Amino acid sequence: MLSYIWGLYTRPVNTWNRIAELDESSLKRCLPYVIILAMLPPLAFVYGVTQTGWQITRGGDLFLMTVDSALQIGVLYYVGLVAAVVLVGYMIHWMATTYGARAIFSKGVMIAAFSATPLFILGLVAAYPVIWIAMVAVTFAAAHTTYLLYLGIPRVLRIDEDRGFMYASAIVAAGLVAVVATMGATVILWDLFAMPDFQRVPL
Description:
With 203 residues, the chain is mainly alpha-helical. The protein has one domain. The chain has ten helices and three strands; from the N terminus they run αααααββαααααβ. The longest helix is centred in the C-terminal third of the chain and has 34 residues, at 161-194.
């Protein structure tokens, strides 16, 4: 798995070609990739909001979240990440016949998971929650994830580049809908039982 992570940053085309050669059983053995990497952003989040804290303005008070509240949100965060990968993977599988590709569900999930690698890795910036750093990291990670998706779909699903571009564009649109739905679900969950519990620490 580590070779795939490094390869997606240094030699993405060759790495996608290697992934394309994996059979169904090998793809299923890669499931820990999602399970482990998806833990990184929630763990960094819990550490950041309970130990480092948010400082809205320079010299202002420090805001820390209680451990119980952070853990609760961290678990929901993890479930949401895994669910998003599975949902996008299902969309890749579901749209395959439309674009002349032949995909199995596990292959769709792995394309989604490997494409999301930058989001998982750069989620570590949550350990030091500074707003401008988080915004830059999210922007870069989203751009890199989109780039990997456009590279990966035609290679793994064995379709031509033009059709792969249209296919990947449809998946990106579905992913944006999933992001909006996740934001809506977050607001609802906060209102029901997972409202963040902050404590102010004067500096």
